[in-house]
Amino acid sequence: VIVSLLSFGVQTGKALSYINKQYFSDANGNRGGAPNVAVVLVDGWPTDKVEEASRLARESGINIFFVTIEGPDENEKQNLVEANFVDKAVCRTNGFFSLPVNSWFALRKAVQPLVKRVCDTDRLVCSKTCLNANDIAFVIDGSSSVGTGNFRTVLQFVANVTREFEISDTDTRVGAVQYTYEQRLEFAFGQYNNKAELLNAIKRINYWSGGTSTGAAITFAAEQLFSKSKPNKRKIMIVITDGRSYDDVRAPALAVHRQGFSSHDPGVIAYSIGIAWAAQDELEYIATDPDKEHSFFVDEFDNLYKYVPKIIYNICQEFNSQPRN
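C-alpha cells predicted for VWFA domain-containing protein:
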C-alpha cells in the first residue's frame, strides 16, 4: 500500500489534483500490484471544489481517506464551496473512507482505526478499475475447421485483448481453456502473474484439432476457472468459435451467467466471438444480454483484430456504469 499523507485546509481540490497527476507514478516508486491510498487530513473548510478532483483520482485507482478535524464555525460556513465535500469526495461505502475527529488532540485515537481500514484491501473498492478488477477466461475453439494458421491468429487476438489489462495477482487475472469434443485447461487464474509471462503462455498454446462441443467447454470453464474466481473480481468469459456446436450451448451458458449470482458476485459476463461458420443463434445464447454489446461476428479470422478496441470499450463502459460507490 502506498500512502500519501496530506494536511491542508484551503485548496483541497488542487492538492488532490496534484497527487493524482504527480505523486502516484512509476517514477516516484509506485508499485503496480499495491493499492494506492491517499490519506487527507483537512481541518474542515476547504475553499475550492473537491468532488471532481476526487472523482478523477478515484478513477485513476487512488483510494482516498478523509480525516476531518473539527469543522467550520457559523461564520466560516458561508465560504464553503461544497458543504458536504467529504460525502462527495470519498467512495460511498457507509463511511468506510471518512473518519471525523473532534480535535487535533484527539487525532492519535484515529490512528488504529485508520490503519485497520487502509490494510483491509478487499474493501479498497476505489482502486478497482475496468482494467485491474477482472478474472477473464478465454474459451478457445481448437476444432479441426480452425486450422493451424487460423489458430495462431486467434491466439494473437487473445494476446491483444490481454495486453490491454493490468495483470498481477491483485489486478486482472487471465485463464484459458481450449476445447474440441474434449476440454483442456491451458492455464488457470493466477498461474501467470505478470504480463510478459502471460503473453508467452498464450503464445505457447498448442493447437489441438477435433470436434466442437462449445456447451461442454463453457461448463468446464465454470468448473475449472470461475469456481476459483476471487469474490471481489468481475468475472468475464470470452468464447471464441468458428462453427456450430455439436452439443447444446443454451443451458450451460444460462448456468454460467447465473453462477455466484448475488449483489456482491453478479455471475459471469459472457462475450461470444463468432468467426466464419459460427451460428448466430448460439452466439446470442452464449452472450450476456444485451446481445449487441456482448456478441460479435467476423467473416474471417484475419478480421478478429478489429474487435479488440470494441471489446475493451464495452468491458469498461459496463464496469463504469455499475454502482461501486
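Residues 39 and 107 are 13 Å apart (CA to CA).
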